[in-house]
């Protein structure tokens, strides 16, 4: 387990699956049991807050982001000058600063990263061209991350390309149905997903350019593997 202090009011804790196993708990169990997750989070806080900056009477919020290796936990302290909106803004600023750190790398490494990004985009463009104009892309807005877990377990078509994004603190899931998939099949799969989300008017290319990509290409399968 690793800890990083983002600012005076927020701590980021990286909790790996091995850490969860040692504590006899899984990510799914935490998401399903409110009392257990609250107790777990406060236990984590007591471990990482070695300087006792977070007092018992402080108003504290916890934000959780599961990933393949475990989860990221953001612990924030609220006061008169640090309301919920400020916490969200701090987390988004932190995410942006993480990407900005690429500028601190050597010129050689920056070139490698640039080439890697360009190759990835070229590969996606080639894939899109090969799939023809008949391919259908659906963008879903998720009310919470857990909705992606539910969708992953009701949609079983391995040919669907799926990407999970986070944009303006909202999770979005894009589903790309390849050419040849009938409209009836698409309608069925869409109806299953709509049970846990709503269709969004945001285009997938907007998310690709501006959103934080959480999981790519086979997001649904990755989520199944984790949960």
Layout of helices and strands:
Elements: E1 2-7, E2 10-16, H1 17-22, H2 27-32, H3 34-48, E3 59-67, E4 70-78, H4 84-100, H5 107-131, E5 136-142, H6 145-154, E6 161-167, E7 170-177, H7 183-194, E8 198-199, H8 204-210, E9 212-215, H9 219-226
Antiparallel strand pairs: 1-2, 2-4, 3-4, 5-7, 5-8, 6-7, 6-9
What is the gist of this entry?
The chain has 227 residues and is of the alpha+beta class. Helices cover 47% and strands 26% of the residues.
Description:
The protein is α+β, with helices and mostly antiparallel strands and 227 residues long. It is 47% helix and 26% strand. It contains nine helices and nine strands. It has helices at 17-22, 27-32, 34-48, 84-100, 107-131, 145-154, 183-194, 204-210, 219-226, and strands at residues 2-7, 10-16, 59-67, 70-78, 136-142, 161-167, 170-177, 198-199, 212-215. The strands form two sheets. Strands 8-5-7-6-9 form a five-stranded antiparallel sheet, sandwiched between helices. The protein has a four-stranded antiparallel sheet with strand order 1-2-4-3, sandwiched between helices. Strand 1 and strand 2 (10-16) form a beta hairpin. Helix 6 (145-154) packs across helix 9.
Number of helices: 9
Question: What is the H/E string?
Answer: EEHHHEEHHEHEEHEHEH
Unreliably modeled segments: 82-96, 98-106, 129-133
* Beta-strand proportion: 25-35%
Secondary structure: helix percent: 40-55%
Question: What is the average per-residue confidence, as pLDDT, rounded to a whole number?
Answer: 76
In total, how many beta strands? 9
Broad shape = elongated
Give me the Rg, rounded: 20 Å
């Amino acid at each position: 387990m690793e800890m990083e202090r983002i600012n005076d009011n927020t701590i980021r804790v990286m909790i790996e699956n091995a850490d969860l196993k040692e504590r006899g708990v899984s990510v799914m169990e935490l998401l399903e049991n409110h009392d257990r997750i609250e107790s777990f989070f406060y236990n984590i806080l007591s471990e990482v807050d070695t300087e006792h900056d977070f007092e018992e009477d402080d108003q504290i919020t916890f934000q959780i982001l599961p990933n393949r290796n475990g989860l990221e936990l953001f612990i924030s302290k609220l006061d008169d000058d640090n309301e919920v909106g400020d916490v969200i803004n701090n987390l988004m600023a932190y995410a942006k600063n993480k990407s900005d750190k690429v500028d601190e790398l050597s010129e050689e490494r920056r070139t490698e990263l640039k080439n890697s990004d360009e190759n990835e985009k070229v590969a996606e463009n080639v894939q899109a061209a090969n799939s023809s104009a008949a391919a259908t892309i659906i963008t879903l807005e998720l009310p919470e991350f857990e909705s992606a877990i539910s969708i992953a377990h009701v949609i079983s078509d391995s040919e669907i390309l799926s990407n999970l994004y986070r944009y303006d603190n909202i999770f979005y899931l894009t589903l790309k149905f390849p050419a040849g998939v009938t409209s009836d099949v698409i309608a069925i799969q869409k109806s299953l997903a709509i049970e846990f989300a709503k269709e969004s008017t945001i285009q997938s290319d907007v998310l690709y350019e501006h959103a934080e990509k959480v999981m790519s290409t086979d997001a649904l399968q990755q989520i199944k593997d984790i949960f």
